[in-house]
Amino acid sequence: MGSVSNLGANLAALRDHNAAVVLGLLRDAGEGGASRAELAARSGLTPQAVSKITARLRADGFAAEAGRRLSTGGKPATALRLVPGAGRAVGVHVERDAVTAAVVDLAGAVVATRAVALSSGATAETLVGVVAEEVRALVEGGGVLGVGVAAPGPLDHVGGVLRDVTGFPHWSGFPLRDALAERLGLPVVLDKDTNAAALGLLRSAPREPGSFAYLHLGTGLGAGLVLGGEVHRGARTGAGEFGHQVLRLDGPPCPCGRRGCLEVLCLRAVADGDTALAARLLGVGAANLVQLLDIDRVLLGGRTALADPDPYVRGVRAELPASVPVAVAPGGERVVVEGAAELVLAPLFGAGRAGRVLAPAAP
Amino acid sequence: MGSVSNLGANLAALRDHNAAVVLGLLRDAGEGGASRAELAARSGLTPQAVSKITARLRADGFAAEAGRRLSTGGKPATALRLVPGAGRAVGVHVERDAVTAAVVDLAGAVVATRAVALSSGATAETLVGVVAEEVRALVEGGGVLGVGVAAPGPLDHVGGVLRDVTGFPHWSGFPLRDALAERLGLPVVLDKDTNAAALGLLRSAPREPGSFAYLHLGTGLGAGLVLGGEVHRGARTGAGEFGHQVLRLDGPPCPCGRRGCLEVLCLRAVADGDTALAARLLGVGAANLVQLLDIDRVLLGGRTALADPDPYVRGVRAELPASVPVAVAPGGERVVVEGAAELVLAPLFGAGRAGRVLAPAAP
DNA sequence: GCGCTTACGCAACAGCGTTGCCAAAGTGGT
DNA sequence: ACCACTTTGGCAACGCTGTTGCGTAAGCGC
User: Fold this and answer.
1) Within the 144-183 window of chain A, which residues sit less than 8 Å (CB to CB) from chain B?
2) Residue A311's closest CA among A339, A279, A344?
3) Treating both helix axes as pointing N-terminal to C-terminal, what angle do A36-43 and A11-29 enclose, rounded to 10 degrees?
4) Splitting chain A (363 residues) into consecutive groups of 10 residues, what average pLDDT does each group show?
5) B66 at the A interface (CB within 8 A)?
6) Host H or E run for residue B210
7) Does residue B45 lie within 7 Å of nucleic acid chain C, judged by its CB?
8) How remote is the C-alpha of B152 from its chain's centroid?
9) Which pLDDT score, from 0 to 100, does residue B3 have?
10) B94, B150 Cβ separation under 8 angstroms
11) If residue A293 lies in a helix (H) or strand (E), which one and from where to where?
12) How many Cβ atoms from other residues are within 10 Å of residue B30's Cβ?
């Protein structure tokens, strides 16, 4: 079977799982909160189980009562809500020329932001220093659960190692996650910028169907894929190489070694100012992807697409079935930083762990 | 978060999960079986928990002791193995011109097979009758857990409904699963033929990495995708439309409404006898897919590919990174029937349910 | 024969969600 | 005002889970 779900589960895992499920429902419920009975209905747990679980969450400070609802014919429900301040996470967006960081509370609201430019020839050590400095400035309040770092791909999410980032060959192989974790004394998660964006978008629209593609058109062309409510990374975090699909056999050569890649064609059209062609190409690639994976909707982002979004939305929409909505990713560039923070928060809420819902027994 | 994993879990779910995990490990262990200590190490469960779980499995007839291992310095281990005869499943492969069925035991071994031709204008009711007849002839021994049906797409796996199967427009919308289930009095699962094949291949090589693509080149061109050890179907079982990716902008029109689809180009090359071109086209499509999803390996199947496999394997391999192995899917056409049976068996062994490892409490 | 290691079961246990029951607090009919 | 009813939610006892501590079986090496 799979390499992952061969794992047994114990009572502690059961408890943690249910706590995360309830916490996730509380977060999705937002400001209004949710009553114990609602939580029971949505989770499939018994009302009594929910009472016990929420009692633990309240004792730990993660949840609190928040007034009464109107009666629906019986005793009025007591609303419970997430206590946003019970924990924080830092998201860091590493770009080729800048580092942006933000602290986010449990509800996903941005508490503070920082940004700093990155000199063009920065070494990996310099990068660690800059990021550590930004994070330190943000975590002074304490209560920070961890740091999520979104960086340009390719990279290794599992190992936390950078690969051959275009323009920064000397970063290749650098264990950014562990270096940062040691320097900061905090847990660190590393992922591709497009994956972080997809995670952020997943968070901001939890009620939407389970799969979408975030297409990022900036200096390159990549994608973040959410399949079945989970970010799909692939074994080596290599998924999302959306730009390197061949759309024109024997087309112009691409640095990746093949010919007629979407990225080459599309970026050339952008350079030529032919936005309509670029949009059409993007649409054809999106249609390939949507057909292949049966994806529910498409979101566009990236500096180039955001600078003049309408023709891209129209062009992509024209190539897709009418059943697949196309829109600009809300939040602009901000989704990457927030998604990076979400890399830390998601496990608390029972997301991002479908394959390992139940961890093995502690050693 | 996802639409699926908002579900809480109770002790019954915990027990079932662990039982399935252990049963899956026993099946993967094959003839030789596995000791309780090995099961404990692989599952992460306590040895004592494994003892209890295997005691239940033995009491239910699913597992049995199978001799002693050699000592490794202490008390020799007692091997446990799956009892293959404890349950059976029927797999049915519906093609446009034939129906094949097979009974399979818990270990996946084929116990009996049947095949019958299907007249070209068969109605959906005729199909139900033919399939029911084949299944009835096979289940006489009893102990059958369910029936898995693999049919040409598109179809709806969740609803168990056929869609517009090429050449059989009158099948569209027919609820094959429920019709069969009622007629047979057995649980029925319906899935696309390519997905069944992928599931069968996943079963036959459980130790391999977690993702692969099964590319099926026959009268059409489709794919079965296994991502992270799970078959990826998409929300509407529409995933795997591998043949309708555009490889040549403004190429020849395709019945799907677009132009330059891989399927059109590839089938035309096949019709022209230009196997090398067909193979190269298949390879380019495969490379697009491998890059997009970070897939570990590629398996080829389908009548056309199997008739003359070498050029296809070579052609596809030439377009892929060297790190991605390409091979002919072992078992030929047989994988579809066996995979269909696996649709029934997989849930017993803890596979195919990563998103719903823990079911909600019983109503 | 002795010490050591490994495999595994028995018994007591802590902790999980469940069940049965009851109190609280509204609505709506009379 | 009163009563019947509905809905919310807690308390206590319970059944069942995997865990822990310890004892026993059964091999190896010296």
Assistant:
1) none
2) A279
3) 120
4) 63 90 90 89 90 92 88 84 94 94 95 92 92 93 91 93 87 95 96 96 81 94 93 92 91 89 95 96 96 95 94 96 95 93 91 39 30
5) no
6) none
7) no
8) 14
9) 37
10) yes
11) helix A275-293
12) 13
Residue-wise burial string across B252-275, b where 16 or more C-beta atoms lie within 10 A, e elsewhere: eebeeebebbbbbbbbebbeeeeb
**Domains of chain B (ranges, CATH numbers):** 11-85 (1.10.10.10), 87-196+336-347 (3.30.420.40), 206-332 (3.30.420.40)
pLDDT at residue B361 is higher than 70:
no
Helix (H) / strand (E) element for B161: namely: strand B161-162
Do residues B104 and B89 make contact, with C-beta atoms less than 8 angstroms apart? Answer: yes
Residue B134 and residue A168: Cα distance in Å, rounded?
A: 63
Residue whose C-alpha is closest to residue A241's, from B261, B241, B78, B295 = B295
Sheet with B326-328, strands from edge to edge, namely B230-232, B221-227, B212-217, B297-301, B326-328
For residue A291, the one-letter residue type is Q
The DSSP bridge partners found for residue A216 are: A222, A301
Q: What is the DSSP letter of A246?
A: B
E strand residue ranges, B198-357:
212-217, 221-227, 230-232, 297-301, 326-328
Residue A137, min C-alpha distance to chain B (Å): 31
Nearest to B8 among A10, A44, A361 (CB): A44
- In single-letter form, the type of residue at position B145 comes to L
Q: How many CA atoms lie within 13 A of A265 on its CB side?
A: 28
Handedness of CA A165, A167, A173, A176 (dihedral sign): negative
